[in-house]
């Protein structure tokens, strides 16, 4: 008998007992009363329903094969909410083409909040936004395959799933433009005007937002000025950069999508190419004005010798949904590691925990699912078996990270097989 069945049985018994009401037992503040018990049972049922609603259901992995026959697209690896990642997957993988999905080499996938839509950015040569809908019955429907909306490399949705911001690397300087999303149809459309699009210099390598304060953060790493652009959205088509933007962190932001925002505490963390203290921390205000934390930059490990492998699709820093922990990928004396780091909400200081795990070669695409239960990454086995693989870790609410029982999952051979390009978790929304 599972947890939900026990709760339902308890509610049924409680309801039956209430048919013979005793006035003295109907005080909801009295732990011995029927009314108190009924409220507790109902609250447990609601909590269970909410937790299952965001329970992990799949891991969307963009894949590409760079040998004949050239193919690309994505796989959705199924996730068991208790055991974690499995080797079973659904997919839409097709012949590579510049004229339609999947492009030649997808650079990013995204999943809007409260949805099972999958957004694919198809990359150079095609520059398309592609929308699939992943049904509860695990069917895949292609909803949109659209070009003419810039040359996107990143996309970030607001918490209501109705608005998105995306980078356009086809302009000089590069810009951030605005998209509208119809939640019913899933269709994306340009929604520029007034302050949009706005310029952010060259080579934006990271994009994130604060829904609480209507802020858009972008990190750039090529051609001055370098740093973090902080843009305050004041209306549908209006906004302005915060004072002092872009904020110069003193080190070049790394080639990773590594801006992590803790909205409730107004904290922001980014990575740099600094080999010993690569993680920078900032405090920002409601207008996006930023200040460096007193103890920043931070080191994940006294033994660190290099940052993880970097490219414009990589992610080596990930924030858990509660905003209490960061996970970071790095290198120490030729071995790659994953380290769990705790966040002090008052000071913003980062403290490495004793939870440190070795991972495969070239780790990247670090992704924490929305339920907080699992943490995923892609890596390879190098000369041992020459495979690309997916690794994952389970995570408890009290901060315990454990290597997944099915980890690693093989994706394909490093020569002639499918290579992972980016990944995003998808939840079991009703």
Keywords:
mainly beta; 2 helices; 430 residues; 5-stranded antiparallel sheet
Protein model, in words:
This protein is mainly beta. It has a domain at 3-43. Helix content is 8%, strand content 45%. The chain has 2 helices and 31 strands. The chain has helices spanning 3-17, 34-53, and strands at residues 56-65, 71-80, 84-95, 108-110, 117-121, 129-134, 140-146, 152-157, 163-168, 175-181, 188-190, 198-199, 202-210, 215-222, 227-233, 239-241, 260-262, 267-271, 279-284, 290-292, 306-307, 317-319, 325-332, 335-343, 350-359, 361-368, 374-380, 387-395, 401-403, 409-413, 419-427. The strands form 7 sheets. Strands 8, 9, 10, 11 and 12 form a 5-stranded antiparallel β-sheet that branches. Strands 21, 22, 23, 24 and 25 form a 5-stranded antiparallel β-sheet that branches. The chain starts with a helix and ends with a strand.
User: What global shape is seen?
Assistant: globular
Total E-strand runs: 31
- Given as residue ranges, the uncertain stretches (5+ residues, pLDDT < 50) are 1-11, 13-24, 45-50
Strand fraction equals over 45%
Largest sheet entry: 5 strands, antiparallel
Helix/sheet category: mainly beta
Radius of gyration over alpha carbons?
23 Å
Cα distance spanning the termini: 23 Å
- Considering DSSP H and I runs of 4 or more, what fraction of the residues is helical? under 10%
User: Please, what is the average pLDDT?
Assistant: 89
Count of DSSP H/I helices:
2
How would you summarize this macromolecular structure in one to three sentences?
By secondary structure, this protein is mostly beta strands. Helices cover 8% and strands 45% of the residues.
């Amino acid at each position: 008998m599972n947890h939900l069945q026990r709760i339902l049985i308890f509610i049924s018994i409680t309801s039956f007992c209430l048919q013979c009401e005793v006035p003295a037992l109907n005080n909801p503040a009295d732990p011995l009363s029927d009314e108190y018990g009924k409220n507790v049972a109902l609250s447990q049922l609601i909590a269970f329903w909410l937790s299952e609603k965001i329970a992990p259901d799949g891991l969307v992995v963009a894949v590409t094969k760079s040998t004949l026959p050239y193919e690309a697209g994505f796989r959705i690896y199924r996730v068991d909410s208790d055991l974690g990642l499995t080797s079973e997957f659904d997919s839409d993988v097709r012949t590579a083409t510049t004229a339609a999905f999947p492009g030649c080499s997808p650079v990013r996938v995204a999943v809007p909040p409260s949805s099972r839509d999958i957004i694919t950015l198809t990359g150079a040569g095609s520059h398309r936004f592609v929308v699939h809908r992943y049904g509860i019955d695990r069917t895949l429907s292609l909803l949109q395959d659209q070009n003419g909306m810039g040359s996107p490399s990143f996309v970030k949705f607001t918490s209501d799933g109705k608005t998105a911001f995306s980078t356009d690397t086809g302009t000089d300087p590069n810009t951030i433009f605005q998209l509208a999303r119809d939640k019913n149809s899933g269709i994306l459309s340009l929604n520029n005007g007034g302050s949009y699009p706005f310029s952010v210099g060259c080579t934006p390598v990271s994009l994130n937002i604060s829904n609480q304060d209507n802020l858009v953060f972008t990190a750039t790493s090529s051609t001055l000025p370098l740093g973090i652009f902080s843009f305050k959205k004041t209306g549908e088509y209006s906004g302005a950069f915060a004072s002092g933007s872009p904020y110069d962190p003193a080190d070049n932001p790394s080639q990773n999508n590594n801006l992590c925002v803790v909205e409730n505490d107004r904290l922001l963390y980014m990575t740099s190419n600094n080999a010993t203290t690569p993680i920078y921390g900032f405090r920002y205000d409601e207008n996006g004005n930023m200040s460096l934390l007193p103890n920043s930059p931070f080191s994940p490990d006294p033994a660190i010798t290099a940052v993880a492998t970097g490219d414009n699709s990589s992610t080596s820093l990930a924030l858990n949904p509660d905003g209490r922990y960061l996970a970071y990928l790095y290198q120490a004396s030729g071995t790659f590691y994953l380290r769990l780091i705790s966040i002090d909400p008052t000071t913003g200081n980062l403290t490495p925990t004793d939870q440190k795990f070795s991972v495969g070669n070239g780790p990247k695409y670090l992704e924490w699912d929305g339920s907080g239960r699992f943490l995923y990454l892609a890596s390879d086995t190098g000369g041992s078996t020459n495979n690309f693989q997916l690794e994952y870790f389970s995570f408890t609410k009290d901060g315990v990270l454990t290597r997944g029982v099915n980890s690693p999952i093989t994706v394909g051979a490093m020569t002639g097989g499918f290579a992972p390009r980016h990944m995003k978790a998808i939840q079991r929304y009703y």
